[in-house]
């Protein structure tokens, strides 16, 4: 069975249109992990990870659209870097207080000049905040605390692709996490040394 020239042309055009309409493959980003930075082992029975951050799934918040959310990444940091000896009497509590990223529209160049100008279209503002508590089981009072926070902003141009926007989000989150990790490292060594088990 053979195709006529018209039928073959139609088939080619249909295939080309189908190819044009399919979205580009989503970019894949490395998983942010922190175990290689070392583990803080505390003389506590357990480490609890809790979140007090109430995510807003609508505008202007966008963190729920990230390949991996800031809240999930903060949980991973605590899982990778905080450990317990199993000694009863006290416990550690890692509290996620803030893990948001918001989007703000930026002003655009108007008129004829605007048609020939590529403006920065949106700004993304991120904020992370965490608290680490050492609590005594009896009376459930705080015996020690360490805290850290980090913030960053990034802008993106008009016409940015989905993959490029997600790359900006990933870089924003990675930069905030690096800052928060460094600050929490300093705070733990300064404020919670008496609860650390040196191995």
Helix coverage percent = 25-40%
Secondary structure: number of strands: 6
Give the helix tally: 4
CATH topology title: Double Stranded RNA Binding Domain
CATH class: Alpha Beta
Describe this structure in words.
By secondary structure, this protein is an alpha/beta fold. It has a single domain (39-195), classed as Double Stranded RNA Binding Domain, CATH 3.30.160. It is 32% helix and 30% strand. The chain is built from four helices and six strands, in the order αββαββαββα. The protein has helices at 5-21, 70-81, 111-115, 162-191; strands at residues 40-42, 47-51, 82-84, 90-105, 120-136, 142-157. The chain has a four-stranded mixed β-sheet, with helices on one face. The chain has a two-stranded parallel ribbon with strand order 1-3. The chain is elongated and about 70 Å long. It starts with a helix and ends in an 8-residue tail after the last helix. 17% of the residues are buried. Mean pLDDT is 87; it is low at 1-20.
